[in-house]
Design brief:
heterodimer, A: 501 residues, mainly alpha, 2 strands, B: 160 residues, 76% helix
Chain lengths: 501, 160
């Protein structure tokens, strides 16, 4: 493990890899400042271009991109009150009021420093956990993996706010898309309707670009509103930014607690970034000397969510690499990226490619430190990106999605499939069906089936009666029945008079 | 208040029909290993869509989605009716189809700059801004195709 740790670290010190990380940081920063385009979008758009690229170059670049996206997302949240990503929503609560009070620079400095330290802290935790993770992973056989994958898809479905059924339907759509094509075990073709083109299944890039990128672009074109509506010139005073950095060191306890919370939530598959930031925000408020000032511009309300936001990525990355189950929504797209460069995340990855895993974790730490420094000095300049009208984004990104879909298999049929999936995506998007669950279902479908049949042949019809599997299935049932249990509990506790009424 | 048939209902009914069709089609596969999981997922998907449709028709769904809309769009104008939104999507999608067809005819390297220029001019941008964006975009795609050694479809008129 120690050797892999250093191998991973030294493998990053090549010019092309460092340039890749730098490009990832830059792209992540710019995209992070555009509220319409999240970290997932930039990873999706990168997928067609990383085919055949060395994993040690492609994956650190994407990891850097994603890490920086979260850091930069705080800038729009603080300056304009528009969160760059859903994870930055909690930062808006106190960050934006601070800007209104003329303390925007301080809030920005604190957010950048907390993000960087949170990200680095989670990487340290992840590296310390690597030797422990391997034996845990070995305890997961086919039955446990099947239960875990089922849990992950259901977890992702429940993240969709107020619409668990829609999340589950999305998951089913994704799984069905994943079933199309040649069945490896029996050799039969499923739902190809005689077309040779889909024998190998529907292209992963077509699904991602169609379901996600093109749909969001069309939505952005529809809104047609400028991303920034207020003057952003007041933020960016270096002295104020430095004061913000010092605030983080004055609240080291808060930073540590929030980082640990972010890391733990990140490790648990599919809970989502929102959970980490809100739990961190909640504990910051509970432990604060002045809880009543939260929501009106308290610096602790910026430090806590930003630390947790970046910290969750280290935990989520470890779960993604070790189990092949994404620890967060963003990691669902990273999971696809791993497959595109020829790596299969799961129990074998850490054993066989430990140096690559360490390299990715190191790159996450580097991206967090370098990115925060760049944000710090370039904040005034970068904020101008938010003034780009959506029309420019549409005319530049839309042709790239078509070229990207074509580029994967050098076939126009890929574009046709992508356009068909876009139609599905539009209806899903307008009716608030979560894409992440569909993508996860699509990616995990073959493995879900593989582990199911393997577990069935090894353990018989009651294959799921192993301790770990039972716990995982119980978790799935509890999670799916959560609303039902809560409402039943409330009914039981409700006064009799109200019941009668 | 009872709900009524709307775009979401139409989407759900289509989804149920597709799930039913795929499930019945999967029954024709010989090996149990091939058909069990697809049939199970189609069945679950069908039931979930039916449940969602029931919620939509009884008005429960409207309540939930209204709450979500309130949460998400607190600072925005009144939400546009979904039908007119879909019309705008169709207009946007027509541009995508247009670019695809022109790429099929004359290739990406020619169709992309044409698309950028025409789109910007028809959306109220100045001639100069349209020209600059066209040149930058065309140059970027050409440069990327050379640097990344990407094969771009040349179009059927130019030997594709």
């Amino acid at each position: 493990m120690t050797q892999s740790f250093f191998n991973g670290l030294f493998s990053l010190f090549h010019l092309n890899i460092l340039l890749g990380i730098a490009a990832g940081i830059l792209l992540g920063l710019v995209v992070g400042l555009l509220p319409a385009i999240g970290p997932s979008m930039i990873i999706v758009l990168s997928l067609p271009f990383i085919f055949g690229v060395d994993p040690i170059l492609a994956l650190p670049m994407l990891t850097s991109m994603m890490a920086m996206n979260y850091t930069a997302g705080a800038a729009t949240a603080i300056i304009m009150g528009i969160p760059g990503s859903t994870a930055a929503v909690a930062t808006t609560l106190d960050g934006f009021p601070m800007t209104q009070k003329g303390l925007g620079g301080r809030a920005l400095g604190a957010a950048f420093a907390a993000s960087a330290l949170g990200g680095v802290g989670s990487v340290v935790f992840a590296i310390l956990m690597m030797p422990v993770v391997h034996p845990i992973v070995l305890a997961f056989k086919s039955a446990e993996m099947f239960s875990l994958l089922l849990l992950a898809i259901c977890f992702m479905a429940t993240v969709s706010k107020g619409a668990m059924t829609k999340g589950l339907i999305s998951g089913c759509i994704g799984i069905l898309l994943g079933f199309v094509g040649f069945h490896k075990t029996t050799g039969a073709d499923r739902w190809t309707f005689g077309s040779i083109y889909v024998y190998d299944g529907i292209s992963i890039v077509s699904v991602m670009l169609g379901l996600f990128a093109l749909t969001i672009l069309l939505d952005m074109r529809l809104s047609g509103k400028p991303l920034a509506k207020i003057d952003t010139a007041q933020a960016g005073d270096l002295r104020e930014l430095w004061e913000g950095v010092k605030e983080v060191f004055r609240h080291l306890g808060l930073w540590f607690r929030s980082t640990v919370i972010g890391y733990i939530v990140g490790v648990i598959p599919g809970i989502g970034a929102e959970t980490a930031i809100w739990v961190a925000y909640g504990q910051a408020k509970m432990t604060s000397k002045d809880p009543s000032s939260f929501g009106t511009g308290n610096i602790e309300g910026v430090i806590a969510p930003e630390s947790a936001d970046n910290a969750k990525e280290g935990g989520a990355l470890l779960t993604t690499m070790a189990f092949g189950v994404p620890g967060s929504v963003g990691m669902a797209y990273m999971l696809v990226a791993f497959m595109v460069v020829g790596l299969q995340p799961g129990p074998k990855l850490i054993a066989e490619h430990a140096d690559v895993c360490f390299a990715i974790l190191h790159s996450l730490a580097i991206a967090n430190i370098v990115g925060a420094a760049v944000c710090f000095f370039a904040a005034p300049l970068l904020l101008k990106v938010t003034r780009v009208p959506p029309i420019y984004l549409f005319v530049t990104i839309m042709p790239l999605t078509l070229i990207g879909a074509y580029n994967e298999g050098a076939s126009l049929s890929d574009i046709v499939i992508m356009l068909m999936i876009t139609v599905l995506g539009i209806f899903m998007h307008k009716n608030r069906y979560p894409f992440a669950t569909a993508v996860l279902g699509y990616v995990l479908a073959p493995f879900l089936e593989l582990y199911f049949w393997r577990a069935l042949s090894l353990g018989g019809p009651l294959f799921f009666l192993t301790p770990i599997s039972i716990v995982l299935i119980l978790c799935t049932i509890l999670m799916l029945g959560n609303n039902f249990f809560i409402s039943s509990f409330k009914r039981l506790l409700a006064p009799k008079g109200r019941k009668a009424a | 208040m009872k709900g009524k048939l709307n775009v979401h209902c139409g989407f759900l009914i289509t989804l149920m029909a597709i799930m039913l069709f795929l499930g019945i089609y999967a029954l024709s596969y010989e090996a149990i290993e091939t058909k069990l999981m697809p049939i199970a997922v189609c069945g679950i998907g069908f039931l979930l869509a039916a449940h969602e449709l029931r919620k939509e028709l009884t008005g429960q769904e409207k309540k939930v989605s209204d709450e979500v809309v309130d949460d998400v769009q607190t600072n925005e104008d009144e939400p546009t009716p979904i039908v007119s939104e879909l019309r705008s999507y169709v207009a946007g999608f027509a541009w995508v189809i247009g670019l695809f067809l022109s790429a099929y005819l004359v290739g990406f390297l020619i169709s992309t700059p044409i698309f950028v220029f025409v789109y910007m001019m028809t959306h109220g941008r100045t001639f100069l801004a349209s020209c600059i964006t066209t040149v930058v975009m065309g140059g970027a795609i050409y440069g990327a195709s050379i640097a990344l050694q990407m094969y771009l479809f040349p179009g059927i008129l130019f030997g594709g």
